[in-house]
Every structure is written in C-alpha cells, then in structure tokens.
Amino acid sequence: MPYNGIKLEQSINIDKLYTVHYFEYMSDFAFKGESHDFWEFISVDKGEVEITCGTETHILKKGDIVFHEPGEFHDVKACGGSTPNLVVISFGCNDSAMDFYRKRFLQIDETGRNLLANIIIEARRCFNCRLDDPYLQNMPRGDSDMFGSEQLIKLYLEHFLIHLIRRYSAPVVIRKKLPKAKFIKTTKNRNDTAVFNRIVDYCESNLTSRITIEQICRDNLIGRSQLQKIMKERTGFGVIDYFSHMKINAAKEMIRASHMNFTQIAEYLGYTSVHYFSRQFKKIEGMTPSDYASSIKAVSEGRTD
User: Do 165 and 28 belong to one domain?
Assistant: First the structure.
C-alpha cells in the first residue's frame, strides 16, 4: 500500500514582515502616532505606557500586549514616570484567524516572552539596522551567515500568534497522573525554579551593594556548584555575571530617567568608581554610558542617522 502524504494546513501564515523593534524609552518619550494597512502589536517588557487605539486611550503595564488591526490609528508615550521597554512588531497576514486579535488586550506568559526574545535575537542577526529606532520603516537585509534566520522569525512569530489564541481559547486539559520518573523530574524542575527565583530576588534586593558568590551561597543556603548550574541553565550566565547585567540594566533605566549623573549612578549601584562603572557598562553594552545616553537622546528626538 503506497504512502499518502498529508499537505499540512496553515492556520496562520505571515506573508510579510515590516518591522521588528525593541525599544528602551526615556521617561518623557512620545511617538505621535500613525496608521497603516498591516497588523502591529505592542508588548510591554518593563514599565508602563499610554497608548491610543483608534479613539480610545489605554494604559499598558509589564506583560500586557495589544494588537492594532490594519487601518487603526495608534500612538504610544511613556507614562507613570517609568522608562519602559517595549517590543513592537508589524507584519502582514490575511488569515481569518487574525479576527481573534481585533480589539483584544492580552497578557503574555513565559512561553510568549521566550518566543518574542527569539524573534529579537534573529532579527539582530539578519537585518542591518537598529531595532531601537521608532521611526524606522524599512529593514535592509544584512550579511548574516546564520542559516535560516528569516525563516525562524516567521516560524517564531506564527508560533507566538497560535500560542496566544490557544491560551485564551482552548479549554483547560486535565492531564493524567504523571509516571513516577516524570514526577521526580518535574519536582526537581519546580525546586530549581524556586531556587532561581529566590536568587533573582536576592540579587535585586542587593542591587546597590557589592556581593560575592560566597555571600550569595551563604545567605541562600546553597552550594556553589548547584548555584552556578541552575543559573547557567536558566540564564546562560554565572551568578556574578548575571548580577552584573542586572546592575547595568538598572543603570540604563537611571540614565534614561535623567535624574542622576554618571557618578551618582555609579555610587548608588555600589561601584567603587565611575571609571570602573564605565568599563563594566562598555563590557556589557558595547558602548560607554555617555554613548548610550547620546544614543537614547537621539532616538527620543528622532535623530537616528
């Protein structure tokens, strides 16, 4: 009996990508707004923003996502004194499944955040442009030698859209009792997650201090090798490198807020000197604090050449 292949159906097909953005806004940023004949969504990664959808105004906070259907006017501005981080992606799709997203305000979960992060990573690999320019209308292809980057963006984006529809539409499935081996693994994962969350909270509460790996282990009753293994699995960094990235992310927010100078920021975050702070900043971000401040100011003023 011959094999009969099945042509797989596509519930959602992205036929064109227009923009992929990851913004780090200053606290006074405002985008005057636009409308276009393709879909766009805005997802808040940090802070909060005020947006307009047609004639309605809404506040979005961390984890919120809203879709703008083709032809709908929309704008965005920072609010609440925060320095928000946003993911904004616009794309073409004519499938009827997109009706689900009309006038919808949703929240994304960890799976959704991971898919968005993967889109940003691949976009940085294959497009020769800044992803933090809110006025960018075209994304020229770069010279990336990463095989399949554009296709992965399409797949991740389609996966993201399908995941949201399933999450908000599908009934809850009551699963059968897990076999013992799987239960043990699940329990370990749950315990590792609890440890990871505890370490992250600990690092956040000590963000203005200088801490060592020995201090982290002692204060959290955990062995050094176990700590490093969990952090490496969850973040790709050792715990001290992760803590350093947290400090620099906090510094970036403070620079965008424009309330303190670099010396004050360095002192507040527990750096021994502004020079050491500047070296750490450049090591992680690839630019000095001054260059970063100038870059963000240029974006805010629409000067991105």
Answer: yes
